[in-house]
Amino acid sequence: MSTDRAPSAYPPAARLNLVEQIHGHRIADPYRWLEDPADPDTAAWSRAQDELLAEHRAGWSDRAALRERLAQLLAVGAVTAPVWYGEHGFFQRRAAEQDHAALLVIEPDGTERVLLDPNAVDPTGATTLDWYYPSPEGTLLAYALSVGGTEEPLLRVMEVATGTIVDGPIDRMRHTAIAWLPGGEAFYYSRFLAPGTVEGDDPKLHRRVYLHRLGTDPETDSLILGDGSPRGRYFMPRVSRDGRWLTISETQGTDPRNDLWLADLSASPPEAPALRAVQQGVDAMTYPHFHGDLVYLQTNRDAPRWRLCVADPADPAYANWRELIAEDAGAVLDDYEILDGPALESPVLLVATTRHALSELTVHELHTGEEVAKVALPGVGSLGPLTSRRDGGHEAWFSYGDHTTPGTVHRFDARDNTVGLWARPPGAVVVGDVVTEQVTYTSPDGTDVRMFVVAPAGTATGPRPTLLYGYGGFNISLTPWYSPMAIAWAEAGGVWAVANLRGGGEEGEQWHRDGMLARKQNVFDDFHAAADWLVASGTTTPGQLAIMGGSNGGLLVGAALTQRPHAYAAVVCSAPLLDMVRYELFGLGSTWAGEYGTAADPEQLGWLLGYSPYHHVHEGAEYPAVLFTVFDGDSRVDPLHARKLAATLQHATSSTRPVLLRREGDVGHGNRSVSRTLDLYADELAFLTAYTRRA
To answer: Of 132, 435, 583, 592, which has the fewest CB atoms closer than 10 Å, so is most exposed?
Structure first.
């Protein structure tokens, strides 16, 4: 049956004659009424969109087969690398039948025990484990659960031996870290202010750092830092493993720079630490780690691809930093662990880097930073974070994966620099004959950009349906990892491409900055150039080329489809930012001004208007098939963006290819159950198949 639908069949949506003058620009906003989900007209329009989607979904003949294959690929489950505190290890594992991973503890005798299972807490799958922090001795666990995708969790403290809850719940705990003091009697954390305490503003944008002692009322916790801080500040406290040093990283929203504070807890009480600046007002990021008598500083200060320095915490001024691992001109320093167990002749650094989005692992002498060995990895792919025993040792753990290999956990032994398998996911899967290639193409300004291409093995017989995926923002790198969607697409004969665009972190901080603020168009140009390469190479044709992205990647594909509608056959735009004039007014939007710019500034409004998808739709243009996917529990990116652009495109397009809106309740921007993920993936792939594989 035909999958096309005439534009006249779209649900009616009133167009307001609303035009504002902002910094000399006349800006129309005909669908502002769709910003309010509680408005009866918005609710009725949304229900009509649900019906429209259901009618089209019924015509996606490949959906059932795709869903079955995706279910098989997701059933492999998952496992994470362990983190070690005292004599206990903590890790997560998801079995095939589980919607969420359970948290397990490894006992001193090596046996494993389920410590916390979100599936048992809430069989509906709506409850997620957002984070957890064991105490230094591994005897207590601070953890946070949230419901319905809101990412607004409650903190509780569990006794590891018995599972007894000994503290909490504490609310207002979004985006925090827990920094335990030795003994497990207290911890530092950040918390946003209570409702009604900030006149005329959202209290969730105002955070403070506190010290909490177990068993006490959190409303009486000692204020440590943040009183009077500007809105949108984030704080990350950490305590050295010996309990002497407290550091607090302070950032403005997602800005790529931080202030760093340090206090000697042996010289001042924990409730009133004498904080002093290690880094303040510097346009760089620096992360501290204490070991022995030194503080190790991973930083991109004067090193866009990052380096590792060391200093005396008693005098950590920048002039006293000593470079230990220099910046590599071709690779980004991602992570490191210090291994110093008694079984080693001398302590070493295990250093993880990425070179053009592919992981490397090397061993270095601790005191000089000299490289002494390269570590053979399980394949050509990506490593997860390195972990080691908090109390020292000669072992480290990490996850490994690539586009077609489920994530496995490996153990590194510094005695002989070998790597061995520690854990596999609990399920099994057979992947078809699919191969991955990394290619390089050139953006319009001459910049070389890399792209992963996942395709069926063997010689291609001609252009094939192709999906181009991208993100390009917030210093986030798209490195290879197990992708059921990519495998299912390639097994069915298609090509799956992932472009490492500017704005990401694949080539370091300068790569990020070359795709933000006034340079945001570079990201879209890189993406268009990736599409051009896929067509010019004979991989696909514009009529077989689809694009997909989520969140900031939703902005990416929104800009791509409005800038070059004839270049793409189909678009999946998930949880997107699309009205860049008003994005700061909703959700966490105001914390992203350092990435995008602010409409309050005349020059920056010009940047935003230059690409804002909602403001670049032209009546009568033939737009590709578009599927917007949004989540009602999303507290980061408001679904209003997708509603407004969906209505705009439905009004403007002259194409018979549909513009559809898929919405879900009780899920949000982040963690979600596997069963809900399966249905989402099946809908997205079936939609893309319908509009790239037709005769």
So the answer is: 435
What are the residues whose beta carbons fall under 8 Å from the beta carbon of 166, sequence distance 6 or more? 140, 157, 158, 159, 214, 215
**Which among 249, 551, 612, 673 is annotated as catalytic?**
551
Contact in structure between 80 and 426 (CB atoms under 8 Å): no
DSSP at 318:
G
Pairing verdict, β 88-94 and 78-79: antiparallel
SS3 643: helix
Query: Which burial class, exposed, middle or buried, applies to 437 when counting CB atoms under 10 A from its CB (0-12, 13-18, 19+)?
Result: exposed
Q: What is the mean pLDDT of residues 570-597?
A: 97
CA distance 628 to 664: 11
The structure's pTM equals 0.97
Contact 456, 539 (CB under 8 A): no
Structure letter (DSSP) for residue 502? B
Q: List the structure tokens of 421.
A: 């398998």
Residue closest to 462 by CA, chosen among 412, 537, 401: 537
399 is catalytic: no
Options 46, 512, 669, 673, the catalytic residue: 669
563 vs 596, 597, 628, CA distance in Å?
18, 20, 17
**CA-CA distance, 20 to 36, in Å (whole number)?**
19
Cα(518)–Cα(649) distance, integer angstroms:
26
Residue 530 near residue 497 (C-beta atoms within 8 A):
yes
* Cβ 327 vs Cβ 305: under 8 Å: yes
Q: In the structure encoding, which two tokens stand for residue 204, read together? A: 């969730």
Answer for the pair 487, 524: CB distance below 8 angstroms, yes or no: no
Say whether pLDDT at 359 is over 70: yes
Distance of alpha carbon 649 from alpha carbon 618, whole angstroms: 9
Whether 382 is catalytic is no
Q: 544-571 burial by CB neighbour count: b if 16+ within 10 A, else e?
A: bbbbbbbbbbbbbbbbbbbbbbebbbbb
User: Do residues 604 and 517 make contact, with C-beta atoms less than 8 angstroms apart?
Assistant: yes
Which of 569, 587, 566 lies closest to 641 in space, CA to CA? 587
Query: For the chain, first and last CA: distance in Å?
Result: 12
321 contact partners, CB below 8 Å, separation of at least 6:
297, 309, 310, 311
pLDDT tens, residue by residue, 533-557? 999 999 999 999 999 999 999 999 9
Cα–Cα distance measured from residue 613 to residue 649, given in angstroms and rounded to the nearest whole number: 10
Contact between 578 and 555 (Cβ < 8 Å)? yes
pLDDT (average), residues 636-650: 97
